[in-house]
TrEMBL record:
This is L-threonine 3-dehydrogenase. It comes from Clostridium amylolyticum. CDD domains: TDH_SDR_e (cd05272). Residues 4-241 form the NAD-dependent epimerase/dehydratase domain. One of its GO terms (molecular function) is L-threonine 3-dehydrogenase activity.
Length: 318
């Protein structure tokens, strides 16, 4: 990988992945793109940046050719809760953007990464230790676009030889980008509110287990998969990966170890609870470990300590 184009660079993953990859491959070799062009932003100012609406196929091809990219990391998409509120727009952006990105990758013979999600599973999927290869009939528009995306990426690999690779991300937790319309974002918001208010009201109910991962492990997973020996990959789109599975009261207990007075309460959002209930409690990531050496470093205690330490600095709280 020498010249990497990233779409959705100002989103939850992109805003950290661009900086992470620029440190590895060089600032000038990671071209960040997003539909927004904010002032004074590290991603915009730290290297090449192009305004790009992923629904503009011609512009995407023009940017990719201008920078002579050999790798496309396509992140632009609507997340689960927003997608359920705007299903038509979600299909248009998630599938229209993906199709355009795959076509550019095909035309320019680029390596290609796009994330799927545990949202690609549904109520009929085995809930515990969900297998790599299993039934995928999600009941959400987000999940429909994720399964469709997995199938489309596998098609481009088999039909056109495009080197597509993907992972099914669990909920991602980070202190850089604020929560962005996901069902798992309670697990991001709770750390902010614990420091700012000493309390949090969860929109996901007690006892609702979901797979989660700290962002540093997610960034490492993307680079490790993209650098993996293709001859070792039996799967392509997309690998189950996870670091931990927990439910809201467990993250609250971990926070209380650092903020003893922290108070947790619940006001369940039926829409996001229904989405969460349709997802696995835990997934099996043996295939990722065996085929490309996936390995997560953070667990709930180490993630919680790092999140609170970094947010104290970000929020300027003693
Ligand atoms: C969401 N954070 O909640 C995303 C992710 C597994 C969850 O896909 O929509």
């Amino acid at each position: 990988m020498k010249k990497i184009l990233v779409t959705g660079s100002l989103g939850q993953i992109g805003s950290e992945l661009v900086t992470h990859m620029r440190k590895i491959y060089g600032d000038s070799n990671v071209i960040a793109t997003d539909i927004k062009v904010p002032e004074n932003n590290e991603v915009v100012n730290g290297g090449p940046f192009e305004a790009l609406d992923v629904l503009d196929a011609n512009k995407m091809a023009e940017v990719a050719k201008k920078h002579n990219v050999d790798t496309i990391i396509h992140l632009a998409a609507l997340l689960s809760a927003v997608a359920e509120a705007k299903p038509v727009l979600a299909w248009q952006i998630n599938m229209g953007g993906l199709f355009n990105a795959l076509e550019v990758a095909r035309e320019l013979n680029c390596k290609f990464f796009t994330p799927s999600s545990i949202g690609a599973f549904g109520c009929d999927t085995p809930k515990d230790n969900t297998p790599q290869d299993t039934i995928q009939r999600p009941g959400t528009m987000y999940g429909v676009t994720k399964v469709s995306g997995e199938l489309l990426c596998d098609y481009y690999f088999k039909k056109f030889g495009v080197d597509t690779r993907g992972v099914r991300f669990p909920g991602l937790i980070s202190y850089v980008a604020p929560p962005g319309g996901g069902t798992t974002d309670y697990a991001v918001d709770i750390y902010y509110k614990a420091l700012q208010e000493g309390k949090y009201t969860s929109f996901i109910g007690e006892g609702t287990y979901m797979d989660m991962m700290y962002m540093p492990d997610a960034l490492n997973a993307i680079v490790t998969l993209l650098e993996a020996d293709p001859s070792k990959l039996k799967h392509r789109n997309a690998f189950n990966i996870t670091a931990m599975s927990f439910e809201p009261s467990q993250i609250a207990e971990e926070i209380k170890k650092h903020i003893p007075e922290f108070k947790m309460s619940y006001d369940v959002d039926p829409i996001r609870q229904a989405i969460a209930d349709s997802w696995p409690n835990s997934i099996d990531c043996t295939a990722a470990r065996e085929e490309w050496g996936f390995n997560a470093k953070y667990d709930l205690p180490s993630m919680s300590k790092d999140m609170l330490d970094k947010l104290k600095i970000k929020l300027q709280i003693k």
